[in-house]
Each structure stands twice: as C-alpha cells, then as structure tokens.
Amino acid sequence: MNNDLERFISFTEREVFDKDQELENKLYESSTDNFSFIDLYCYYGAVDCFKLLRTKFKSEITQTCLQFSFLGRNQEIMSGCLKYQTPNEE
C-alpha cells in the first residue's frame, strides 16, 4: 500500500466502498489477521490516505493503529494516533 491519495479517493467513491472493510494482509509470515484500511495506512506510513479516512470517514483510531504507526515511522500519523490512544505495555 502506498500513499497514492488520488487513487484511494477514486476507490472510496465507488458505491461498494466500506471504510470498515477488513483486508487479509500478510504483514509477516505467520499472520492470519485481517486489518482495516486505517490500520494498514498506519503501518505503511501513508499519511495522506490516513488523513482522508480520519476526516471524510471518521475512521476510529484503535490500539492497532497506534502500534502500526510506530512500525510505519511516520511522525504525523504517530502524533495523530497518540491523541486518541495510549501505548500499552505489549
């Protein structure tokens, strides 16, 4: 996933778009988890797409978002997540 805002906007304008859809993504070999768009944009550091989900769709920032934001290393996304979530000890 990259930070292609123009393409993502086009994708979100389709009738079938579901901001809460979970995608299967093999972030690591043994991963069997599904992740939301906002989770994945946090992980990949795609700040423009992250902002679109927050402003247009009011996507919730979860603990997963916060954890992934640190992995993605985008300061702006990390700051945004820290406004709504507190790091846990895991």
From TrEMBL:
Q: What residues does the DUF3447 domain cover? A: 57-90
Xref: Pfam families: DUF3447
Record-given protein name: DUF3447 domain-containing protein
